[in-house]
Amino acid sequence: MSQSLDRQKAKPHLAEEWVGKIYTFLCILFLITTIFSIVYFVASKGLSTFIVNHVNVIDLLTGLKWLPDGEPALFGALPFIFGSFSTSILAACLAAPLGFCAAVFMVEISPKFGRKYLQPVIELLAGIPSVVYGFVGLSVIVPFFRDVFPGQGIGIAAGALVLSIMILPTITTIATDALAALPKGLKEGSYALGSTRWQTIYRIVLPTTLPALMTGIVLGIARAFGEALAVQMVIGNAPHIPRSLFESASTLTSAITLSMGNTAMGSLANNALWSLALILMLMTFVFVFIVRFLEGRSKL
């Protein structure tokens, strides 16, 4: 009698378990289908430039002139690739030290004050729309550069400074989580051997969490690499390789957003823009692989 009652009680739980499994499987299937659909769509459109329109891949990647309406049409994407990499890497170089120092302060030096006041402020930066960053950059950073440095103020320096503020929450949050996850035994052992707090930080804490810190930098570069609106407002959008940080430049995202609405679907210029989107997607995959590699080398 008791066994039959136990079986009756177990049936609803089995039904709920199957419902949960089916729901989870459908969600995973939807995500996989969506990802493969996006990759297929962007790849098919981007490769049309080389397969249908017979544009040389080397000319696209190394060309210096972007004249889609010229005779003949020229599609040199190197200025856009250079602009994207230069602004993203420079932004990471500016944001990484600030993010690491903020993380060390919040975890190792003043955890109560840092977690209560500093961390919410930094996380608040992640919720600000990119157009606000672009407007602040256009209203504050560009006039400052115009008054202090030669040029009009717009260029790679302005774009990198805006991007550094945008990616600061990403780098800081990942660095904070990595430092907080560090086993206390490592630090206690260092203190037991007579090390000071700063010696423990730069000889034990930072080297041990270095892969996680590098992961934050790579994710920040990936975030900056795909940003469009904020950079577009302050970089100048000139399709050439600048000779200084205070000259106008352009990025892959800026070129796509500014020109995609002015081209006809299936035309050579439209396919070339999809090729730029394909380059962006491939670079995103590269960043993901780098992050996975760094996670595999983590010492924690």
Automatic annotation (TrEMBL):
Lineage: superkingdom: Bacteria
Pfam families for this protein: BPD_transp_1 (PF00528)
Transmembrane portions of the chain: 22-43, 80-109, 121-142, 154-180, 201-225, 272-294
InterPro entries linked to this entry: MetI-like (IPR000515), MetI-like_sf (IPR035906), Phosphate_PstC (IPR011864), Phosphate_Transport_Permease (IPR051124)
Stored PANTHER family: ABC TRANSPORTER PERMEASE PROTEIN YQGH-RELATED, PHOSPHATE TRANSPORT SYSTEM PERMEASE PROTEIN PST
Keywords: Cell membrane, Membrane, Phosphate transport, Transmembrane, Transmembrane helix, Transport
Originating organism: Cohnella silvisoli
Protein name per UniProt: Phosphate transport system permease protein
Signal sequence, start to end: none
Known function: Part of the binding-protein-dependent transport system for phosphate; probably responsible for the translocation of the substrate across the membrane.
Record carries keyword Lipid metabolism: no
SUPFAM superfamilies found in the cross-reference section: MetI-like
ABC transmembrane type-1 domain boundaries: 81-291
